[in-house]
Please model this.
Amino acid sequence: QENVQVVGELPNDVFETSGLIFFNGNLITHNDSGNEAVLYELDTLTLSIQRRVTVTNISNVDWEAISQDDEYIYVGDFGNNVGTRTDLAVHRILKEEYLNSDNVTATTINFSYENQQMFENNGNSDWDAEAFFIVDDRIVVLTKQWQSLGSVAYEFSKLPGTYVANSIGTIENVGLITDATYDTELNKLVVIGY
Model:
């Protein structure tokens, strides 16, 4: 991590930021689990809040990540530390609606992991996730495996519906992935974690 520079502190309202995208000249972020279903638009230089956009028809169960494509902003509501959730989701918001209103609605893409059989709380699990990205017509979620310290990539459609996410690959000994972005032009995936 060479040449990392502090650019400022986030506003108090963004006390548990959990995802970040750059859209329409600003940064967009959100808070983590149990907080309001609000997207915060931040100035890139001052980090001050320019807008608060409320997603009126969903709640923030455990929002962990945010991504985008040309038409939509996607919010990953799939935090699952202990592996008990059966309501994993990605919510999508039409960018046109986001640009024109401070109150928006989302459509939901529900999913489950194809090979998760157990949903008991046995402590931190391998079924948590804090990272995803969009590629073509698919959503790819990268798990945060608390026990195995690796990650499995699962994919499913980015269209609203209910899906069983298919495993498409494994990253061994990568640690705990907490976010990711995919550069389509360079065909590069960048992950961060610990």
The two ends are 13 Å apart (CA to CA). The first strand starts at residue 17 and ends at 23. DSSP finds one helix and 15 strands in the chain.
